[in-house]
Amino acid sequence: MSGAYATFALAPATRAGAVLADGGYQVHRDFVDFVVDGRPLLFRLSDLDAVSPLASDMPPAIFTAQVRGLLLETGPPLPGGRYVVYGCPECADLACGAVTAVIERDGDDYVWRDFAWQTDEHADLEFNGYHGIGPFRFHGPGYRAALTALLDDTAPPAAPRRRVLLIGARVAVLAKLAAALRAIGIGADITRDATGVPAEELRGYGAVAFGRAVGEPERAAVRGAFERAGVDVAYVDGLAPIVPLLVAQIEQALDRGPRRRHRLTALAAADGEAGIEVTSPCRVSLTAYRLDRLYRSHAREVFDGVLEPGRHRIPLDARAVKGESFVVARTAGGVLVAAVTHGKPG
Length: 346
What we know:
The protein is built from seven helices and 20 strands. It is of the alpha+beta class and 346 residues long. It is globular, with a radius of gyration of 22 Å.
């Protein structure tokens, strides 16, 4: 085993929620990711939709047990000294598949090795091993300090403000949007006037979403209410009354983390193609939404595949982006939205 050391750190991460084109839901999850040699470990797994066991919505006792397991203060949950590193974001059931690794002590060091994809109690390293990942050797003091810092308050780290204030004229659309947001784990409230809302309530919101019919005087009044309350929120201008599209806009607005934590960093779209930029190998899906002349919404998945780092141009079916249309690019950790314009994307 190599004696070279890797650095170990922790950083907040997100699995973005979604209302899918087929009507299904993808739950929003906030979690703590493992950062190895300055790079999120999840980024090494290009085609994986998963979260670490350190999720912010866990009960404190379970969260604490997960941390103590990684510190090897309790026995491994799986045979062979194996621990779950990433699991299913929807149910955390091993049957859905999980990335596991042997975690062990070597003197004062901690070693993570033999990473594998596992769907039952026993890992098959020959067929399901991640042979290009690890082993990683971590200095014991730094490893323990990073993990025990999570236990200072004996509770999961506080999640970002995942509550949205919805303001618009179309009550039916707002009600559907609020229901969809709640279904994926984001709180939502509807109002037309925030001026009388107490400051302590306004501080619970991370974003405000305006419908297209909301005029500038109303928008200014809402912004003024939040400014007086000293609350820094993201403002979303709804592109169209299409619920999955609005959910994606809100998820994008709520993700205010640094660029280095994002795989998907740029999206632009013209009639003929979409321009996408990614920072590491990852699975990207691209969905087109449009309104027809009767203001009915249509959705079509136009791409789903793994992209390498760099800028990519993806053809768009002219029928999918006819008229007033939009594209949503999504990875497991983030989402970007763009209106389709004439001309070439930058």
